[in-house]
């Protein structure tokens, strides 16, 4: 299949770090330790989870009586300093890093949410998306709760603060009966840390051990290593885990559906050094690349990744295909948000702030370009053209995940139907749009096989349109007051 | 009575603008106008009310469908710029300037509070203090509402958002049945502005007219003049006034106690160019000074005020006594918050950042020094000493209000019992403490007579300890989470 | 003379603190003290001199070997905190507050200027304006010095750093031979403080004593009192005073022209509690008001000032005329820079952010309105109209200085010829322009008599156009690079 | 050679992006174009040069008459926005990004330096280090120039502004006769851009073409590609190139020593996609890795880089050795400056914020770890331990450059003699210090051969201690005033 020399629009501007990738929702962290500076450890834990959200960060600390917190817009390293960390004294803490689309970027939505409730103070950090948030929100309004922001994390917080149940344990169970969709929670009361994972287990959260008597929970295991904690186990889908100074105790396993883990944690989200089901995601992605080489070989001279996220898959593709691995694109390490717009002339000359091509590695060569996913398809075309201008004689695009044909309604910012290129176009049409010599995606079966052998418990909604839960089709901005 | 040469402690540092004065709680503003930029007019209205609160400022605007808002810590002129004012488009608006003691200074407490409720969006600005806030707060928690901050303004907002009543009108009436204490509210729904004054009428709020079809409410009439509106009338104690594009309509007059206006609005709070009961407060304060001259004359050569607030009273005292009026103290016009602490040496030399004395007007003279009130008594002594060092042969202190012997529990930050000098000491002891040659206060009768002839409907709690309502003795910081 | 009912333009917006007043250039401060925190004392000294410049502030400290400094845009209280003050350790210091027109507002022009020179480090603070700056600047460029900013203070610094002379003493003498115009300097070397005043003595600078062994110099004596120093004497016109830990020593008295002090220091600039020639300026201004009453009496019922600067003159006018003194205008104490522009509607209604009128004191009365000076004449008219709208039956404007018919070229920002209302119009025309019933200015003779008896050594350039030096007619912005 | 199990100190904290690497000095850029927004193009050019300096950034623009500029501390994307870019209109521009050690981090040292000179305005951007700066600086002081900062770039600016010569051309020639050491300059006058490279050609600077009539100069060719310019040629060592709207013209080739290019541009500094002598540095570094494999093979199972800079060398080592290439360390992509210090407990557990190990790729394997250079040796040891803790059975460290035994005095921040581990220890001792199983460096001959065939014109001072120029042994901080 050859589909070359498509007419191309102007090369687009690649200023964002996550161009044309699905976007994380959040990272959560929690810790109980009587002999440590829990706020400081939470800071370093969030530092390791920064890739899961760069919009805002916050820490709440409990000391047996009250909860104190600090949160602000920005990276973890920008939000915290010694001065605002110092007052956060206690022996239990949770932390949160938040990603959000620009539209709803407001301090009111930063987490943890901290409220006073009838059972005392409460702090909540949430990763995920409730699919029945609109219903739950309306119930809260009807019950007479005024809601300040638009995030469903506030809905969760008010459900816990005011929901049925005489104890926190009861309240969590009631909450899990009512909530649908994706939620990993770390919740702080004045003397306990709760870690909760939805019955589908959509997003990861794990338990670690810190020294003799400390316990840690985190979205990803990479945060454990960073603070010197050891990996213990994953929180189970449907599990409510309560941790006090006495240690962890499972309060309940809510009747689970068949689990449905988000495949994009395996493809792109989680850091390559994090473990899922005991295996580092780097190795998983190398296996995806190997499988891709078997499914979709190419006659070529060299294999290159679109850095950085596709590097493991490219290494795997090279290994399985026997083609040499190399680098063909250099990424500007100092990409930052800029508000300076290119002018017309710059648009014409085709500015490429994010990547430059390595002519020496490409000139006269038939190139296999490995990417891990294509969402809107607006950056792959310019990259193909960049490779051609650097002298590549052929460009064969290989993608280590299947075509994304459906949006995600469970907490991943994946674009809408009209934006998804694989919803609008066939694979040959996409190939032509990209100006590639050939294009192939990894099959869903291949992806699942490479991701975890003999175990098919994944959510595959964005590939198949069949979601593990009913979806209230609500726009995430729908509740915005402003 | 002569009580001189009291041993004095080191002269204290006078860095705050409101040293030893009772402190305002807040200023509220509201506007309905179909043919004006209501956010911009609210900005200029708040500018005129800035003296009622310098900690935070905010504006909320309704356009018939939604409410948008912006608020931040700082002066009105610091909080707003063209960029954040521009999105606030609509035809109804409220604004708020907030004062608070440092302890609870947090953005979470800035107003207006904006929430989504079952009847739609709601924005609330509040001046005052509920005396049964703790009870109401507990009821909200029991009802299952998580509360984020510590201010009773959030309590009011959640009571309105979720309280009984099928309409806003009903909800306001229910609220007024339940709430006790001081509250002037401006409340915005998506298509109406409500102005509410507690049945005691503790703090002022008035109605003005802007052009043909615009209506304005404000804590003080000075804000009307600033935006070109004309004074219409005061909102009545117990009145719920609803203003829409159809104009104002009184929803209810709640059964009132005997009104109990705060006397300190007449003594110090309200701007001298504001009107209360049709009379400018400048004239009221001149009359207080005249009455003080009659009650407590002094053998002296010159009358000087402690600037700026005692200037009208000093003018009145001079007029009635026949003594010449002059200035004896110059106030640094650029007083600002500084975090630089004087060192020991500076303490010894007696730094006086706020005032310098005018030797030429004082040397060899018997001086009557007029102040409008003494709370803690920590700045009057150093000022007396400053006058003596400038050569004053005698210093006779005259205060145009009675001794403050009790705290306020109705929204004025007046200090606690142990801090109040007139609670601890007799007048001769205070005189000795100040190092004055004589000291006299205006009598309560004199104050009332000068403030409004033949009409005794004032709250006099801080002078007599008899409050117009039952007081839950709660510290305002009591609900603070952090 | 009656000149009423002039057609008036739209009422202008009075947002600046110094509307229609000549503008200060700078305040300088210096200290030598072995047993004190000299940077901290300089901070408090600058605090007292804040009225002389609000654009930027800076402090430089010498410790016998090196000079350290900090400066930034903003008020003294905004520029300094404990963190940036702490490193400024030493026993000699200078400080500076700067005013400048907006055009050349840049950090590069903030003072003190600190440079390394062949004789070691050098820090310079300057108040004034050189009249031959362009010539001197060209000489420096020709000598091969690259100049970074546009201020003549940099010219002074480079002249001292690189001018002829083997010692600092020689360099200062050479400088004074070459420089023309107005300059009060405080200069720091690694082990000495120099205070220099131009031979004309245009602007004030005085010497004070701090404890046993400390010495202070400051633009105005009010800064001495603030830090507990006692007034010693003024620096003489033409004097070079050197202060080390050994105490002060006069290096030279440069051959002086007849002194020519700036009359506007007596009229408006200096704080009323500062002393000039042993007399507080408050008393001087009361005398000016008395003289004005004698020269230009009015049939009226009440005397009011335009606050705050005209208050002493109004007190004097009231005293001499026998008319009662009162307040008729209330100034918003929280005037701050705002970038919010009034819209057209606000322009029509006649917003008056700065002043509100006191109807009770004005209605039905014939008012004498005292101002200390009129420059452009753009705010007096609106104030007259404000008084009329408040019910004043007549408004008689009296100004306690003569008509300003010429710009200042010696460091005062006084407006240009076409801007000066008294350059364009006769007094009756101005009266008509203001809409006043009568208008009178204090005569130059009266001003001088009131300001200092029997001693006529003033610069009167802005009144007569006869300057004490030759003027290079250069625009102050002329050297701006950007 | 085996040198294992050395006792190790606590693992250090790896928070900086450039840990244990020599540090760039600066990046320079210049452009002449009559039909383009030169400031905007300079912004994007600096964006591509950001890796050469992250402390401050600045742009100066000339329009035939004047020069305007803006500069501030921070990244290019932080320093500039549309508001401060807009006023920078013209047709010539230069830009600068600056690196500096913390000690001398001050806005005064940010570039470009802009001064007014006798020939008109002048803006200077400089990359490098003068070896006779102290002498030149003293000459300037003696000539009577006051110097404000401590950088030798100010020395260059003042030498050009005030040096001998009636024209700019003459001044540049005089400058090059006097200056010794490393300097790549982009200099703006009101109507010309000068690009100057020192006779040794220590650091790179090249010329590019933009459209029909535009010309660009930049430290590295990667900046040309980013704005759509094509590479033309390198500026020659000793060349003075003048570019006006008429195009480029070589003013002079100053008599050159034998050229002496900095080898660290080939090893680490320049971006891998930049060209030097027509070859991309990525290919050069792959060749270095290949040579290293030939010189120092290892019995091992896998080759991994220390990311990101050693990746090309690791690819080359894998290719030449036949060992599989993989990733063993994951770098946190969100490393940012944090002021939060780890506490004692965190120190003990061995926090590793910068890198996590990929256990799957390492466990039970003999690992070749490729780094491009070792300076102080404080991060390599912890990385070796990290690999071992992840299960590596052997760790063989291979470095693609020779041992650094001497500091650089020509503009590279390379550490001092006592800090350089290869100055203090033998290779076996270093191996033991790192806890590696074996350690080998690339030979100098191998490095040179791989970097450029048959052409030995490199500075090798840091490897051999033989510098191409005389060194005034001055500490870069020596002139600091504060």
UniProtKB/TrEMBL annotation, chains A, B, C, D:
Keyword Repeat part of the UniProt annotation: no
InterPro entries from the UniProt entry: GATase_2_dom, Ntn_hydrolases_N, PRTase-like, PRTase_dom, PurF, PurF_N
Catalytic residues identified in the record: 26
Residues binding [4Fe-4S] cluster: 262, 408, 459, 462
Catalytic EC class: transferase
Residue numbers binding Mg(2+): 309, 371-372
GO molecular function, a single term: magnesium ion binding
EC number(s) given by UniProt: 2.4.2.14
PROSITE patterns registered for this protein in UniProt: GATASE_TYPE_2
Co-factor requirement: [4Fe-4S] cluster; Mg(2+)
Residue intervals of the Glutamine amidotransferase type-2 domain: 26-246
Reaction catalysed by this enzyme: 5-phospho-beta-D-ribosylamine + L-glutamate + diphosphate = 5-phospho-alpha-D-ribose 1-diphosphate + L-glutamine + H2O
Recorded superkingdom: Bacteria
Biological pathway: Purine metabolism; IMP biosynthesis via de novo pathway; N(1)-(5-phospho-D-ribosyl)glycinamide from 5-phospho-alpha-D-ribose 1-diphosphate: step 1/2
GO BP: any one term: purine nucleobase biosynthetic process
NCBIfam families per record: purF (TIGR01134)
Function: Catalyzes the formation of phosphoribosylamine from phosphoribosylpyrophosphate (PRPP) and glutamine.
Similarity-based family: In the C-terminal section; belongs to the purine/pyrimidine phosphoribosyltransferase family.
Protein's recorded name: Amidophosphoribosyltransferase
Natural source organism: Candidatus Chloroploca asiatica
């Amino acid at each position: 299949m050859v589909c070359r020399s498509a007419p191309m629009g102007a090369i687009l501007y690649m200023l964002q770090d996550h161009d044309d990738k699905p976007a994380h929702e959040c990272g959560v962290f929690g810790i109980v330790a009587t002999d440590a500076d829990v706020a400081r450890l939470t800071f370093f834990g969030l530092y390791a989870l920064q890739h899961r959200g760069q919009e805002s960060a916050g820490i709440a600390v409990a000391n047996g009586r009250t909860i104190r917190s600090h949160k602000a817009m920005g990276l973890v390293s920008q939000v915290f300093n010694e001065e605002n960390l110092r007052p956060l004294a206690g022996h239990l803490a949770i932390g949160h890093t938040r990603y959000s689309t620009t539209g709803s970027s407001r301090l009111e939505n930063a987490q943890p949410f901290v409220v006073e409730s009838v059972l005392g103070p409460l702090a909540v950090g949430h990763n995920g998306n409730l699919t029945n948030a609109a219903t739950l929100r309306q119930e809260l309004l009807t019950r007479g709760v005024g809601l300040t922001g638009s995030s469903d994390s506030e809905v969760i917080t008010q459900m816990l603060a005011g929901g049925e149940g005489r104890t926190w344990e009861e309240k969590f169970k009631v909450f899990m009966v009512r909530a649908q969709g994706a939620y990993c929670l770390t919740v702080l009361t004045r003397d306990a840390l709760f870690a909760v994972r939805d019955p589908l287990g959509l997003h990861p959260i794990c338990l670690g051990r810190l020294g003799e008597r400390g316990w840690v929970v985190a979205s990803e295991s990479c945060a454990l290593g960073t603070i010197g904690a050891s990996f213990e186990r994953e929180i189970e889908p449907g599990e409510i885990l309560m941790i006090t100074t006495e240690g962890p105790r499972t309060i309940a396993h809510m009747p689970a559906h068949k689990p449905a883990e988000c495949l994009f944690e395996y493809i792109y989200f989680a850091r390559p050094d994090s473990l899922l089901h005991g295996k580092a995601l780097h190795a998983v992605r190398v296996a995806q690349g190997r499988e891709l080489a078997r499914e979709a070989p190419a006659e070529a001279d060299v294999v290159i990744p679109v850095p950085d996220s596709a590097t493991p898959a490219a290494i795997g593709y090279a290994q399985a295909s026997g083609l040499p691995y190399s680098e063909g694109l250099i990424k500007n390490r100092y990409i930052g948000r800029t508000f300076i717009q290119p002018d017309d002339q710059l648009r014409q000359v085709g500015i490429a702030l994010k990547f430059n091509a390595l002519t020496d590695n490409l000139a006269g060569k038939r190139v296999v370009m490995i990417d891990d996913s294509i969402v809107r398809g607006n950056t792959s075309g310019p990259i193909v053209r960049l490779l051609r201008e650097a002298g590549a004689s052929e460009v064969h695009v290989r993608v280590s995940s299947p075509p994304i044909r459906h949006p995600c309604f469970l907490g991943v910012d994946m674009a809408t139907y009209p934006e998804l290129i694989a919803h609008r176009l066939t694979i040959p049409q996409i190939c032509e749009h990209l100006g590639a010599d050939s294009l192939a995606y990894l099959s869903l079966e291949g992806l699942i096989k490479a991701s975890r052998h003999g175990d098919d418990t994944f959510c595959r909604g964005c590939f198949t349109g069949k979601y593990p839960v009913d979806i209230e089709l609500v726009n995430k901005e729908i509740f915005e007051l402003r």
